[in-house]
Amino acid sequence: MASKSKPDPSTLFADLVRCETRLYNALNDRLRERHGIVTSQYEFLHYLREHPESRVADLATEFAVGIGATSKGVDRLERHGWVARRPNPADRRSSLLVLTDDGVRLVDAAEQTFTDRVAELVEGALDPVRASAGAEVLALLRAALERDRIGMPTG
């Protein structure tokens, strides 16, 4: 079996980042067109649906985004009436985030659009075997980075 050469780090990085950017932008376009939201809003709403009563810090950790930027994103969701902050009985300095009924309806409606668009983009570029292999590689890389707390925002 022929061995593959080690990938060029600059090319690997560029490919990962440009793929992510293009996928994110394509999802932004479709979600904005059909639901009036962007990908980051969908991701926050989806996370909060799956993890009720999370804190801003939980979102920041999940998405590797700073607390300030995460809090501003939640503020926007709250202004739209999709998220509400509730007092945290375990820590008066933080709030628990819950989806409103409108937030639940929105994320439920947007979920199929999101899923269909990701599948369309991936299936348009990769056969099922390569898509599965790529998903496995990315999951392993993400797990290693998260395990070692690499790339966590500092503020």
Would you write up a description of this structure?
- The protein is mainly alpha-helical.
- The protein is 66% helix and 6% strand.
- The protein contains six helices and two strands.
- The chain has a two-stranded antiparallel ribbon with strand order 1-2.
- β1 (83-87) and β2 form a beta hairpin.
- The protein starts with 8 loop residues before the first helix and ends in an 8-residue tail after the last helix.
- 17% of the residues are buried.
- The model has no long low-confidence stretch (mean pLDDT 93).
- The total of beta strands comes to 2
**How much strand?**
5-15%
The general outline is globular
> Which structural class do you get from the secondary structure elements?
mainly alpha
User: Secondary-structure element order, as H and E?
Assistant: HHHHEEHH
* Average of pLDDT: 93
What keyword list fits this structure?
two-stranded antiparallel sheet; mainly alpha; 2 strands; 155 residues
Q: In terms of topology, how is this protein built?
A:
Blueprint: H1 9-35, H2 39-50, H3 56-63, H4 67-79, E1 83-87, E2 95-99, H5 101-123, H6 128-147
Antiparallel strand pairs: 1-2
Helix pairs in contact: 1-5, 2-5, 3-4
Q: What can be said about this structure in brief?
A:
The protein is mainly alpha-helical and 155 residues long. Helix content is 66%, strand content 6%.
